[in-house]
């Protein structure tokens, strides 16, 4: 019987060398950090545009969201069939588009709230990432539950767009913080164990997908924190 070529190192019960794991994690966090810089830079630049330009840009909100979804699905489903360079470019395109969303946040919320939410998200993300990197507990079994929870909050968020219940929004935000904290630890462990690299097909592609996953974890933590504790401008 032939061995499944797509089995991950965790499924095979093997672990990459510590130096290799550290290097892979470092590269993933480096690209994630660059992505966050792109998002922040675009967000600040867009927020500073004249009101007329902003109104025109925000009129393209739906196309921007659609492009983001296309980019995310292309990366997630097609990373094995595209080059690492193209994958990295798509990641930065996604980060730039997210910057437009950040511009809305910068205009809608008080600056102190934005900074506080960012600091809180960084602290939670850092703690979860550290746990995922050092724990000897296998977090693989958590993946399915976290994914189901993620689907749940997406559906609940879409429903709440139409009904607008404050208590549901609060519950979604609390659950979102829990889920993305868990996903951060889960993703870091998968990266460290070499599972992402094997799934993506190479170390280079794996680093892109690892950075993308960590980026999404952090960005979503930030938005959930802001919804929980942020003060809107009067």
* Beta content: under 5%
N- to C-terminal distance: 67 Å
The number of distinct structural domains comes to 1
What is the averaged pLDDT score? Answer: 86
* Biggest sheet statistics: none
Number of helices: 10
- The total strand number stands at 0
Write structural notes for this entry.
By secondary structure, the chain is an all-alpha fold. The chain has one domain (17-229). Helix content is 82%, strand content 0%. The chain is built from ten helices and no strands. It has helices spanning 9-12, 18-47, 51-58, 61-78, 84-108, 111-134, 142-163, 166-193, 195-200, 203-229. The chain is globular. Residues 1-6 have low confidence and may be disordered.
Chain-wise SSE layout:
Layout (H helix, E strand, L loop, with lengths): L8 H4 L5 H30 L3 H8 L2 H18 L5 H25 L2 H24 L7 H22 L2 H28 L1 H6 L2 H27 L5
Short description:
The chain is an all-alpha fold. It has helices spanning 9-12, 18-47, 51-58, 61-78, 84-108, 111-134, 142-163, 166-193, 195-200, 203-229. It is globular, with a radius of gyration of 18 Å.
What structural keywords apply?
single chain; 234 residues; mainly alpha; 10 helices; 82% helix; globular; disordered N terminus
